[in-house]
UniProtKB/TrEMBL annotation:
Residues of the NB-ARC domain: 389-561
Primary location class: cytoplasm
Role summary: Confers resistance to late blight (Phytophthora infestans) races carrying the avirulence gene Avr1. Resistance proteins guard the plant against pathogens that contain an appropriate avirulence protein via an indirect interaction with this avirulence protein. That triggers a defense system including the hypersensitive response, which restricts the pathogen growth.
Family of the protein in this entry: Belongs to the disease resistance NB-LRR family.
Example GO BP: defense response to virus
Domain Late blight resistance protein R1A-like N-terminal, residue spans: 1-238
UniProt keyword Disulfide bond, yes or no: no
InterPro entries: Apaf_helical (IPR042197), Disease_R_plants (IPR044974), NB-ARC (IPR002182), P-loop_NTPase (IPR027417), R1A-like_N (IPR021929), RX-like_CC (IPR038005), WH-like_DNA-bd_sf (IPR036388), WHD_DRP (IPR058922)
Name of the featured protein: Late blight resistance protein homolog R1B-12
Keywords: ATP-binding, Coiled coil, Cytoplasm, Hypersensitive response, Leucine-rich repeat, Membrane, Nucleotide-binding, Plant defense, Repeat
GO cellular-component term (any): cytoplasm
GO molecular function: ADP binding; ATP binding
Taxonomic source organism: Nicotiana sylvestris (Wood tobacco)
Domain called Disease resistance protein winged helix: residue spans: 640-710
Length: 725
């Protein structure tokens, strides 16, 4: 670095030869020296940027060897063109006929990133920096780090001017100018590494814009990634510098939002690119503000509202001043909107009543009944059931026909056979729904608490959950018994493992001679046949080969016909699943993620074993092995959750983030990455959607008992979790 600095200082001397009266003056030499000097200064900034960072020795050696070579060439070429001191006056014809080709060749082949070999050296050293970026933290003063970053940004901006793809580089140029003008003025240690990462990625992109590599460059995706990272830094900068005073801004929100509305109506062209998004944010904030201000028990949301209002005010001002790029504002507004909707969903969990729904969702008609809401939720997350048509008809008849006496319909079968799916199909069947006055359900599992089961049953029919939570166990049992006594009721008790669980609940289900029914699912025959009200337990059969093949076709080809070339191997796969619906669903998750080619399906068929008892675990393992490496720990982490419980997606994703399971090498937002991961796992049928919000977002999910057990075993085997609860 000192050597290059010395070369730069020595090159300043020939500039003094610009006086035509000087004996050492050579026509045109000074212009060439100035060009080389300018390029060397930018290269010196590049060297400064690289010198403090962790780089692989081989790549570092190649880069600095190139830099030293440039310095030596510069000295030699300059010396060759300087006039001789020995011969007295310079020959006026001593200047080359075609200028100074050695200078031009030095610029083109050694310094400027036009030549692919030079671009490769620059790209390799930046990729090496990126590879070790997570391990780097500046050991020098932040001010010096920023000076290095500013210098390298200026180098990149200069190099963009030298490249042939100026139009393609315009967007990068705008981003770098914004970075230099706004984010590198007051840099905090909190996000110095974020800025460094953006600059490195921008450098890789700039030096990739040469003719030979242009065809392979996914330019648009890389630009969007850079924009997303710059947006994150911009928002983080605002949050760190805002230093919210803690003043209650809910009251001032009216003023801010009204001003926004007036400005948007009078000066729409000033913010034309984000006008519709701003209008949506304004409406959502007003809606959320009304809920927080008018509903009891929501005071803890005021702090979140303060931050959002303050942030919207800042973004709105930035739109008017035009000092933040449109793409950055667009991303910012979208994420503020997402934050508002997340808070609204959390509020909905706290206050679920008709008055709240009217404010939050602008519903003008009366809210639907709890039963119809449940049915709509079930319909939105479950497709038409394939198979067991005869079983459904038989069991439906037992539920809505026959004796007026209390009657228990028990479904027994091995894990993965579809007991819960079948029970839910009956529970939400339209004929069944219309026949019973009231329906309640709960899921028991191996470990349970009687109070939790009673609360689950009562929550289906009573809105005042806070009051229920304060009651003791016996009060809850008495309340449930009295509630059911006056009605024709249907109770679904899913996944009962022990007789004691039935003993804990049966006293709550009165014999009222109204034709009430109980559906019970279990994997144990002695539990299914235990109660006096039970008929012969229904032993759930395996899928037939035709049902298995129909399910596979419907799921993989979306109810279209399977291509003839895949039909034979497809039927073979269906048959090897042994009639076990869970195995079928897991195999579908594998097939939908691979090419619809015969050799691919044959590979799946070969790996499916013939043993039905081990089938599900083997299929699960194959599904696991087919997961991308970054999804495997996220999937295994599902083992920390209890069996047969709905998992809050917001809680799951934050746990993933907290445990460091989200891939931070990508520049997308953490929550967006987590959402992508979860949707990918759900798409492979390893996790099931339980509930969705009104806007289609996944609210809760479930995981099958066998899958939970697999995750726990595999996580212990791979030492992923120190302790699984």
């Amino acid at each position: 670095m000192e050597f290059i600095d010395t070369v730069i200082e020595n090159l300043i001397d020939p500039l003094k030869l610009d006086d035509p009266s000087s004996l050492l003056h050579v026509e045109g030499l000074v212009d060439q020296v100035e060009k080389v000097l300018k390029e060397l200064k930018f290269l010196f900034s590049f060297v400064n940027f690289v010198s403090d960072r962790c780089v692989e020795p081989e790549v570092q050696h190649t880069f600095f060897t190139h830099v030293l070579e440039v310095a030596w060439h510069t000295i030699m070429v300059t010396w060759l063109y300087l006039p001789s001191h020995a011969g007295g006056s310079p020959d006026p014809d001593s200047a080359p006929a075609e200028g100074y080709p050695l200078f031009s060749d030095l610029l083109r082949s050694k310094i400027q990133p036009i030549e692919p070999s030079i671009s490769k050296i620059y790209i390799d050293v930046l990729k090496a920096i990126k590879l070790h970026q997570s391990q780097w933290y500046p050991v020098i003063q932040i001010k010096y780090v920023v000076d290095c970053e500013v210098g390298f940004v200026e180098t990149l901006l200069h190099n963009l001017e030298e490249l042939p793809f100026i139009l393609s580089g315009l967007e990068i140029k705008k981003m770098l100018n914004f970075l230099r003008a706004h984010l590198l003025i007051q840099v905090s240690e909190c996000y110095i590494q974020d800025i460094d990462s953006v600059i490195v990625d921008a450098g890789i992109l700039v030096y990739s814009l040469n003719k030979k590599e242009k065809g392979d460059l996914d330019f648009r995706v890389k630009i969007q990634n850079l924009q997303a990272m710059i947006y994150l830094i911009t928002r983080k900068t605002f949050l760190l510098q805002s230093n919210l005073s803690g003043i209650d801004r809910v009251g001032s929100a009216d003023f801010i939002l009204d001003n926004m509305e007036k400005f948007l109506s009078v000066y729409p062209n000033s913010v034309v690119s984000v006008k519709s998004q701003l209008q949506t944010i304004q409406k959502e904030l007003k809606c959320f503000q009304a809920v927080v201000e008018t509903q009891v028990g929501l005071q803890h949301f005021v702090t979140h509202t303060n931050g959002l209002v303050y942030e919207v005010e800042y973004v709105f001002d930035a739109c008017k001043k035009k000092d933040v790029p449109d793409w950055c504002l667009f991303l910012w507004i979208l994420n503020i909107g997402e934050d508002i909707r997340v808070l609204m969903a959390e509020v909905a969990e706290v206050q679920e009543n008709t008055a709240f729904d009217l404010v939050l969702h602008n519903i003008t008609a009366a809210a639907p009944t709890r039963t119809s809401s449940q049915f709509a939720s079930y319909q939105s997350t479950n497709e038409e059931m394939v198979g067991f048509k005869d079983v459904i008809n038989e069991l439906r008849s037992k539920l809505i026909k026959g004796s007026v006496n209390l009657y228990l319909v028990s479904i027994v079968g091995m894990p993965g056979l579809g007991k819960t799916t079948l029970a839910n199909e009956l529970y939400f069947d339209e004929l069944v729904v219309s026949y019973f006055d009231i329906r309640v359900h709960c899921c028991v599992s191996q470990e349970y608490k009687r109070k939790d089961l009673l609360l689950a049953l009562l929550h289906d029919v009573i809105d005042d959950t806070a009051k229920l939570d304060r009651e003791v166990e016996n009060e809850l049992a008495d309340r449930l018994q009295k509630l059911l006594k006056r009605k024709r009721y249907l109770v679904l008790i899913d996944d009962v493992w022990k007789r004691s669980a039935w003993d804990d609940l049966q006293s709550c289900f009165p014999e009222n001679n109204k034709g009430s029914r109980i559906i019970l699912t279990t994997r144990h025959y002695e539990v299914a046949s235990y109660d006096k009200h039970v008929s012969d337990p229904h032993k759930l059969r395996f899928f037939s080969i035709d049902e298995s093949w129909t399910l596979l076709q419907n799921k993989v080809f979306n109810k279209e016909r399977c291509p003839l070339v895949l039909e034979a191997v497809g039927k073979s796969i269906a048959q090897k699943c042994g009639g076990l619906p869970l195995s079928m669903v897991l195999v579908v998750g594998i097939l939908t993620r691979m090419k619809k080619e015969k050799h691919c399906w044959e590979h799946v068929s070969t790996n499916l074993g013939p043993n039905i008892q081990a089938q599900s675990e083997g299929t699960l393992d194959q599904s696991y092995q087919n997961l991308p490496h970054y999804l495997k720990p996220c999937f295994l982490y599902m083992g920390v959750f209890p069996e047969d419980r709905e998992i809050q997606v917001s809680k799951l994703t934050w746990l993933w983030i907290a445990e460091g399971l989200i891939n931070t090498h990508t520049e997308r937002l953490y929550k967006d990455i987590a959402k992508f991961y979860l949707e990918n796992i759900i798409g492979r049928n390893l996790v099931m959607v339980a509930k969705k919000s009104s806007d289609g977002r996944i609210k809760t999910c479930r995981i099958h008992d066998l899958v939970v057990e697999f995750c726990r075993k595999k996580a212990k085997l791979e030492n992923l979790l120190e302790r699984i609860r």
